[in-house]
Amino acid sequence: MREELLSLIEKNSRIDTKDLAVMLGKSELDIINELQKLEDEKIICGYHTLINWEKTSLDKVTALIEVKVTPQRGQGFDRIASRIFNYPEVRDVYLISGGFDLLVTLEEKSLKEIARFVSEKLSTLDSILSTATHFILKKYKDHGTIIDEQIKDEREIITP
Amino acid sequence: MKNLLSEKVVGIKPSGIRKFFDIVSEMKDAISLGVGEPDFDTAWHIRDEGIYALEKGKTFYTSNAGLKELRQEICNYINRTQEVAYDPISEVIVTVGGSEGIDLCFRAMINSGDEVIIPQPSYVSYEPCAILSGATPVIINLKPENSFKLTPEELKKAITKNTKLLVLPFPNNPTGAIMEKEDLKEIADICIENDIYVLADEIYGELTYKGKHVSIASIDGMKDRTILINGFSKAYAMTGWRLGYACGPKDIIRQMTKIHQFAIMCAPTTSQYAAIEALKNGDDDIKMMREAYNQRRRFLINAFNDMHIDCFEPFGAFYVFPCIKEFGMTSEEFATKFLTEERVAVVPGNAFGESGEGFVRISYAYSVDSLKIAMERFKNFITKLRNS
Fold first, then answer.
1. B25 CB near a chain A CB, below 8 Å?
2. pTM score, whole prediction
């Protein structure tokens, strides 16, 4: 049931445990215990909300930054990655195969703040060779969800 | 004056579903639980293959029996799921939905005076198509106390010396009943003993929630007397593509192909290319949808149990078939009142045969969120009825 439970709450973490129990054919206590275990094992790492900030009055700018670094002896990329992910403004850090090494994403109130982070913090770190910053202009799909999708049931009301 | 119309056609009762549809379509804000098709979109990789076929200009007729590659994939699929080997050249025909296969089968096999046994409640097409082909339908009224399965006793009682064909519609629309291997063996023995053929409509085969679906064609001695009907509508959520297939003894398939050739020519070419992709790479899509249906099924069964509504547990298709006899209304009265008072559409059980009277069909081809709202309204409705 573990995988089925995970794939259910991956799409909607707000289904209550009573409904989860019914849908998976288990007792509510089983579900609560399993969720607790998944949290303890850090398989469930958090419960977030997917927000379309564009529709709010808050301005947000998201940037993807490609970073090339020199790996360090004995620690590979891990040390420099931790230097980067410890900045609270950094949202994601991924080690990437191909033309660059780390992909860093950042969400800030303005271009200026992102520019300041890159020039004053990120690029001054030892072992950073270069950075390339891309700004996101529009999000069409995020975390598997199509943003602003209009769902309409096109089916006939009654069919045999 | 000459009679303008065919008496045979005029004599056929219009579908009970149609009548109810006209009432529902008046209501603009109704929630519907009346749909007999999946709520999922066809998986993108399948749609993409259809688009690609169009882009490449694959817009011509295919051979009458369907693309050879598709027939081969159909045979591979049946072989891997049922361990039954069909010859793609002579034992398979690709049809316009499973429905065409049903019609072709009757027309290819029936001589006037032949009897066709039809268990009900079941899909609305069997009886009219059998009548149009000249058969005499013999109805078996399936019983809730047998979980709406066909029992050997019921079958034996319906057999006469004129019986030619048994329609075996499991997993069943509207009841959700399934027939398991042990059940099928008993039916198979009777068919062999009495030289009866079986039209096995297994369109809901992939939507089975208790073990794996077993085809009657896989029972010893039955491949030679089974016309297996299946298709892409339910398993792959491809209703609008209109694509199905029939497999069976080559003499019957040859005659079915003859009618198909004159009446239809071939199934839609775009759909056939998409279907090849579905069979090759669609197993995960089926699994995902089956899991979702099963979650909803459990949700509905639990909701009806909580309301103390008499409802047997269905293990197939995407319907539940609760009994509403305690409210002292006919299925149509119940469904109409439920629609007007609570704005939820369900299908009266008698649309699927007389033995469906006293039941309603509820489809769970809807999101859990919609089902939740609908069940709250159902609860309001029956609470009012019980207190009045």
1. yes
2. 0.93
